[in-house]
Amino acid sequence: MAEFENSGDHRGSNAFQGASVTNDGQIIGTQNNYYASAPAPPEVSAADLKAAGDLLASLPEDAVPKPAPLPAGSAVTFRPNPHFVGRQQDLKALARALKRGGTSAIGPTAAATGLGGLGKTQLAAEFAHRYGRFFAGGVYWLSCAKAAGIRGEVTRCAQAMGLPVDDQDSIGRVLARWQSPLPTLLIFDNCEEEDLLAEWRPPSGAARVLVTSRRATWSSGLGVEALPLGTLTPAEGAALLHGFRPDLPADDPGLAAISEELGHLPLALHLAGSYLRRYRHVPEGTPAAYLAALRAAPGLDHDFLAGGEWSPTGHDLNVARTFTLSLDRLDADDLADRTAWVLLFLIHAFAPGEPIPRWLIHRAAASLETPIDPKAAEDGLRRLLELGLIEEEDPDEGTLRMHRLVARFLAAHADTARRVVEKAVLEAAREQNATGLPGPLLAWQPHLRFVAETAADQGTEGAWVL
User: Fold this and answer.
1) What superkingdom does the record give (predicted)?
2) pTM
3) Does domain 20-228 sit in CATH 3.40.640.10?
């Protein structure tokens, strides 16, 4: 499954005097000017409404249907991806979230969220082609990567509907259809700004909205059900690679090892598979040679994690640039963003891919030359979660996790952060051992081991103490 996503500038636009969202999750202001001036939704007969409701009710929640033709007039940007594997549980979760309400209530909004490169756009495309037939009002795809381009996206939908597009009322006609009581599926791809969702989501009718976003947290007033997207399972990662190299045994251990090294991230696996296929006739194209080169090369800026074959979602096939897009959204003039930047490098210095207790991150932040107080640290962590640069492993326990490739990407700039984390981990370990009850230390022992081994590799003075 070549499933991944990337995007351009996500900053909101002031082009519309639309709704806005306050820090406590309340929506203020008016809806988008276009909705306010749109004509009334078209009349729907009782018979058509019942048929549409019955069709939606038949949408399966516990089984994933095969791809099928979309309703007439639909506008979906991407075709089904022949490399798509796995994601069965994610598709079912979206189906359950978007089926709710029938035709009697305002349609729900669900967001597939997570790190760049996880395949959110590809998942949305797959959902459209597998479940779109159950939405009688049609399926419509809008790229929200650039706020200024959404009008053009709506005009494209008008063309698919067969509506006139040569006058100023064309957008209003589309929005009127989207406020119909007929269940419609709208996909807001790469929607990072809450204001943008509030502006363009229908204020009434039975339309469902599927959002893809790196943003993990949404204001409660928007009523968004966030569905965090994880990496592939080890078996799915190996299967994705095997799709590029069917000449190899399906259980080739080299494919499983590559997937493990890349943290089972779909974008990275697509690039690895493309590389293995491109060089399959030379020694460099064997799984063992690729794995050795991957482990020997620092960072992510090299040819076996960039380029690749044609992208089924039209995105930039480069892992480093995908992560850079998130980093570029951190504003140096914003205090929370500056704090997030510091915390990002601290978190990187823990064991990649392992759950990190929140208190241990606070401990490291307090150990800085200029300490970060707990409230400011929480603001910074929330910002990193919004950008998908870290994920919440367990909301109840408060543990967080950074993907191993994000940590690798940051490695070239993290000497200071590494030393701070070494100090915080050493102090915490000493305190825990002094209690005579080392049991709680087992929960974060991977970080103690990782920090100790890294300190030894780097020749840090006193590394033997760790």
Assistant:
1) Bacteria
2) 0.76
3) no
